[in-house]
Amino acid sequence: MKKIIVVSFLFSFLSSFAQSYKPTQENIQSRNDFANDKFGIFLHWGLYSIFGQGEWYMTNENIDCHEYAKSAQAFYPHNFNAEKWVEAIKASGAKYITFTTRHHDGFSLWDTKQSDYNIMNTPYGKDIVKELADECHKQGISLHLYYSLLDWTREDYPLGRTGLGTKRIHASKTGNWPSYLAFMNNQLTELLCNYGNIRAIWFDGWWDHDEDSIPFNWQFNEIYDNIHRLQPQCLIGNNHHQHPFEGEDIQIFERDVPGENKAGLSGQTIGRLPLETCQTMNGMWGYKVKDQNYKSPKELIQLLVKTSGKGANLLLNIGPQPDGSLPDTALARLTQIGIWLKEYGESIYGTSAGNFKQGDSIVSTQRENILYLHFLNEKGSRQEMSIPISKRIKKITALKENSNIPFRQRNGILKFKITIPKNNIDYILRIE
What we know:
Blueprint: H1 2-15, H2 25-37, E1 39-43, H3 57-60, H4 65-69, H5 82-91, E2 96-102, H6 128-139, E3 142-148, H7 177-194, E4 200-204, H8 220-230, E5 235-239, E6 251-254, E7 275-280, H9 297-309, E8 312-318, H10 328-344, E9 352-353, E10 362-367, E11 370-375, E12 382-388, E13 396-398, E14 403-404, E15 407-410, E16 413-419, E17 427-431
Parallel strand pairs: 1-2, 1-8, 2-3, 3-4, 4-5, 6-7, 7-8
Antiparallel strand pairs: 9-10, 10-11, 11-17, 12-16, 13-14, 13-17, 15-16
């Protein structure tokens, strides 16, 4: 039975695309720019922040969506300041922002004409997406927009495996898909027509129908074609935990670097598209008042290094507070990452995956003919290294001390000795 379902799904999926997707030159350039950026910040923010229980609060607690919606009249993020957000994120060394325009609770953070359930109908009454987009364009940082494919509040959305307890009166397994699809396409058209250059649309929620007995057809061909028609350079990513679908421009891995699957969400094969790993600073994506379990600066920097060593970008998440401010701990982490990248960014930005790796302790990145070796251990002792490198090496430089490292090379083996400092975050060698 499983085989039949898989074959049926593949046939349904492949047949939905009459023509093979061919990205424009603008899109290819956008892919290259994206791949060179290496570091972005994810912002999960919406009505759910009021409750301080994370972005899945409605479905986790089976909250009546009609009662939940009343909280919009209490949403007044008086401390939201797009200029300060972008300044802090830019100072961290991040090159782009991915912002949740609409999450699974269905609340839209822009002046959408497709639903009254949006930021304009709150005491705040200002278009958050516009304020952020304007500031990103002003400060020269790329903007990506997260958009949920599923909705726990709309009755025309076909019921999936989440949001089953949110008291939608007329919702059903079939829903009214033509109505919901039109709603999504109209919202996406608003986002791509009214907010300037958008470098990427970041989809989430495909997995809500991954257990359907009859494979669900999201009609991504129509959705993706509309996006590429409106902004040909706009990249499409979909957090579906599958191999990339036709029409997508980046491949996303959740909570793990490509090739690892410790969290159980990133077991898909690695394709040829630009890669991105999304991970959160603490435990939740959206603001949770009890979640103060932030990863240390060392953990975050090493995660960036390991992700870069796979040739992927790190999209690091922050859950802003209900008043619109970024948590103090998150701001401190941004500052610390920024200090590190200011000193060692040459080994991250614009690099590809290096061809040398030894467990989790040694990672390599590469730019043209320069190889960067990242030593992530803390041995604090002198080590002799032997690395297979066929090309003739001219110089090895320790970036921390900006000093030359003596070496010898024979029969394609490069040998040298280094001392890894105690409390090391990343001891980097530039090999030319």
